[in-house]
Amino acid sequence: MRYWIVNRRSRSIVLIGMMGAGKSSVGRCLHRRTGLALHDTDEIVAANFRMSIPEIFAKHGQKKFRETETEALRRMRTEEPTIIITGGGIVLRRENIEILKSQAVVVWLDGDEETLFARASRKQNRPLLQTKNPRETFSQILTARRPLYANLADIWIDTSVLTDEEVAVAILAKLRRMNPKPESAVSAKGS
Ligand code: S3P
User: Fold this and answer.
1) Tell me: the pLDDT tens digits for 70-122?
2) Torsions phi, psi of 88, nearest 5?
């Protein structure tokens, strides 16, 4: 076992970004590489309602989904650093932004629009894209959110041409560069 210097104040790593950015897969790679616990706000919300995200949107509406998403973040506060995977709309509420800013190094997984859309539309599990023109909807959402992601992010990664593992490696490399002093470290598995 060896140690990665993750960040100076032992903060969590939060992944933000648009649907299709690869937050869940990259989060799992980071989890494997660092051994840090993994939290996924979509999974927490789905477990709360005991139904899938599309079912929650259909039955309870987006507002209720957003409230539960914020509640999941509030309860997630922990002394131990973790990896937090968020849903693409996490940046829509000020309270979410405040919570994430105060606890985590925020990593924005970005990419070119075509690639993000292609990935996001592979599965039919995105209620916000169930429109007459999903491509146009995606474009509008992305345009509205990019400034919000940019405003919150400490680290930006273009995932367009990278594998999930490559993205995870790039994140860890950037974190180490941000924190040259070994003031805090977390264990990394598999090396
Ligand atoms: C949403 C993204 C989804 C999920 C919900 C809303 C959004 O998560 O939270 O469908 O508003 O962008 P992913 O970003 O993992 O697709």
Assistant:
1) 999 999 866 788 999 999 999 999 999 999 998 899 999 999 999 999 999 99
2) -60, -25
- The number of domains in the chain is 1
CA of 108 to the centre of ligand 1 (A): 14
| CATH number of the domain encompassing residue 180 | 3.40.50.300
Residues at CB less than 6 angstroms from ligand 1: 19, 23, 42, 53, 87-89, 126-128
Ligand 1 centre to CA of 101 (Å) is: 20
The three-state DSSP-derived secondary structure of 56-67 is HHHHHHHHHHHH
pLDDT one-digit tens code per residue, 119-177: 999 988 899 999 999 999 999 999 999 999 999 999 999 999 999 999 999 999 999 88
Indicate the helix (H) or strand (E) that contains 111: none
**Which DSSP helix (H) or strand (E) runs through 186?**
strand 186-188
**Nearest atom within ligand 1 for CA of residue 21:** 14
Phi/psi of residue 76, nearest 5 degrees? -75, -15
Domain that holds residue 98: 2-188
Tokens 């799992």, located at residue: 28
> How far does residue 175's CA lie from ligand 1's centre (Å)?
25
